[in-house]
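Consortium newsletter contribution from the modelling node. Members have asked for a concrete example of what our holo predictions look like. Here is one, prepared for the FE2/S2 (inorganic) cluster complex that several groups have been discussing at recent meetings.
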Amino acid sequence: MTVEIRINDDDSLEVSGDFDLLDEEGDAYRHRGKIRLCRCGASKSKPYCDSAHALINFESKVRG
Ligand code: FES
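And here is the predicted structure:
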């Protein structure tokens, strides 16, 4: 299954598919479906986005 990572404007990285998210020690968090990863640094639930980006007015628009 393909894993897709979408860079949302002024928001998180949205990862869709069936994949393992590994911590520094290689321990895996198995995911199926869709998650949002923080890219603003403000989340209190890292590595996941908790929508704190809106509180800090995070701005980032990435275009290929
Ligand atoms: S991107 Fe949403 S809390 Fe950081």
